[in-house]
């Protein structure tokens, strides 16, 4: 489990004022198992701060369970005007006419150009410059590059760093979103490296690191 320290102050230990955060640069990645409060209530709090999108990841769910959850989360997205991108579940995403689809690169490779081109918003995750180039060839509209900083989600693996992120942004004609250990205080450096924004999971699923508004 990825964990962030709970801090109810709007200032972190360095004195960074979290109330200046622009969540429009952030894609929220879900993991309902990290939530210590009601999952839907948490998503409503996130959506109320206007993130770029919500990616409904929930990889442990069967298609039927995922579809019901997706209907509910898409309802929250519509309420707050936040796009909801479904993760991995191609048939469910098509059936629900989701705002977008995110697929792991190995799965994305399995689909025809016709299937891929049906999605105006299509993303994947990249861990090398070769994968960045492949994602563009496969018709993605955005990509996620990581992991940038060390994170509990990838214990024992060093972050690829801002140099990798900058190289990925320079190699890509698509918007690039950084993932891995992104904190509010690190967001500026991520943007300075050329990223369109960042993806955040644990910091949005629990604690007050990003959610300063009640």
Automatic annotation (TrEMBL):
Domain of life assignment: Bacteria
Coiled coil: none
Pathway where this protein functions: Cofactor biosynthesis; thiamine diphosphate biosynthesis
SUPFAM superfamilies: Thiamin phosphate synthase (SSF51391)
Pfam families registered for this protein in UniProt: TMP-TENI
Annotated GO CC locations: cytoplasm
UniProt keyword annotations, A-Z: Thiamine biosynthesis
Presence of keyword Repeat: no
An annotated Gene Ontology molecular function: thiamine-phosphate diphosphorylase activity
Domain Thiamine phosphate synthase/TenI stretches: 27-204
GO process terms (BP): thiamine biosynthetic process
InterPro entries: Aldolase_TIM, ThiamineP_synth_sf, ThiamineP_synth_TenI
Name used for this protein in its record: Thiamine phosphate synthase
Lineage: Bacteria, Bacillati, Bacillota, Negativicutes, Selenomonadales
């Amino acid at each position: 489990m990825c964990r962030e320290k709970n801090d109810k102050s709007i200032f972190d230990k360095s004195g960074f004022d979290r109330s200046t955060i622009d969540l429009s640069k952030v894609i929220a990645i879900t993991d309902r198992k990290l939530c210590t409060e009601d999952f839907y209530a948490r998503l409503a709090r996130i959506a109320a701060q206007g993130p770029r999108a919500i990616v409904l990841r929930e990889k442990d769910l069967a298609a039927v369970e995922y579809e019901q959850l997706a209907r509910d989360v898409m309802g929250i997205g519509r309420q707050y005007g936040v796009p909801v991108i479904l993760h991995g579940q191609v048939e469910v995403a098509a059936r629900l006419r989701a705002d977008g689809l995110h697929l792991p690169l190995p799965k994305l490779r399995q689909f025809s150009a016709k299937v891929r081109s049906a999605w105006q918003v299509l993303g994947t995750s990249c861990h090398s410059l070769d994968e960045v180039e492949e994602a563009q060839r496969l018709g993605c509209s955005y990509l996620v590059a990581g992991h940038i900083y060390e994170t509990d989600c990838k214990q024992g693996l060093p972050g690829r760093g801002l140099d990798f992120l900058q190289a990925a942004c320079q190699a890509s004609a698509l918007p690039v979103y950084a993932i891995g250990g992104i904190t509010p205080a690190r967001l500026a450096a991520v943007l300075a490296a050329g990223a369109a924004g960042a993806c955040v999971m644990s910091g949005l699923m629990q604690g007050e690191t990003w959610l300063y508004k009640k």
